[in-house]
Structures are given as structure tokens and as C-alpha cells.
Design a protein that fits this description.
Length: 155
């Protein structure tokens, strides 16, 4: 029994995969409100950049990773990415990927902290756009091509 959703069967795994990848936003969060286990993006202060160079690399000003623990003196982050001021091209900041190595960052060295949160609104809008696009493709694939009309004849 053919249905209009038959073509979507081949696309279903890809659609569910994209819909499952929720949209994450990183709003500015006070350091005291950071939660261990969440992904964080820390921007280092100007004085912390040279102090952290032996552990993070020269010129590293931004650190992204999973926050493991936080206390009154430091934050321990399993680093996944760093951004450096070294070799900066126009509008391009080189990112270095890490393997999740734990690094202790002094609280006094954090100029700005952001914590990842799933944005329900953006996720719903993204899923609606994908679903609408799939429905449009399915409906267009089931309409026969327009009949060819003979060329107009002029008297």
C-alpha cells in the first residue's frame, strides 16, 4: 500500500539524527553558578594568559571542555578545545582540539564563563524546518510532471 511517507523511510534515520542533535546555546554564567558535568567555555583574563601558557599553550585565551569540579580556588576542566592568539589570520582564530585532558584553571584567571544549555525553542524550530522540508520533498515527488503543452501557434 503506497503512502506519501514511503520516500521518507529512507530519510528517517538522517532526520532523526539531525533532530536529536539539539541546539545548544552558551549564555554568560557567573562562575559561582557553573555546574560540574556541563560543557563550559572559559575566557581567560589578560593576566592569566601568560600564567596558563605552560599548561595550555602560548597565547591561549579561551578554553572549552567539560567542567569536572569547582572549588573556591580553581575549576578543573577536561579540555576539548582551546583558542589561541598565536598565528591569527584575519577573522580566524585557530582552535586546537584536545583529548579531554584535565586542567586546573584558577578562578581569579577567568574573565568570562559560559555554560552550555539546550535551547528548546531553537531545537523545535530546527526540527520543524527539517520536517517541513522533508514533507515538501515528499509532496513534490508524488506530483506528476506538468503535461507538455504544444507551442502556441500564431495566425
Amino acid at each position: 500500500m503506497p503512502t506519501i511517507f514511503r520516500p521518507l523511510r529512507t530519510l528517517a534515520p538522517a532526520l532523526f539524527g539531525v533532530m536529536g542533535a539539539a541546539c545548544v546555546t552558551y549564555p554568560v554564567t557567573p562562575v559561582d553558578e557553573l555546574t560540574p558535568g556541563h560543557t563550559v567555555v572559559l575566557t581567560l583574563s589578560d593576566s592569566a594568559i601568560p600564567a596558563m601558557a605552560p599548561r595550555l599553550g602560548p597565547g591561549v585565551f579561551r578554553v572549552q571542555g567539560k567542567l569536572q569540579q569547582i572549588d573556591s580556588l580553581a575549576l578543573v576542566v577536561d579540555v576539548s578545545h582551546t583558542a589561541s592568539t598565536r598565528n591569527v589570520d584575519y577573522r580566524y582564530v585557530p582552535n586546537v582540539q584536545w583529548n579531554g585532558d584535565p586542567v586546573s584553571i584558577p578562578r581569579s584567571g577567568v574573565a568570562n564563563a559560559r555554560q552550555g544549555h539546550v535551547s528548546v525553542l531553537l531545537t523545535i524550530l530546527g526540527a520543524a524546518m527539517i520536517g517541513g522540508s522533508a514533507a515538501l520533498m515528499a509532496s513534490l515527488s508524488h506530483h506528476p510532471a506538468a503535461p507538455k503543452l504544444p507551442p502556441p501557434s500564431f495566425p
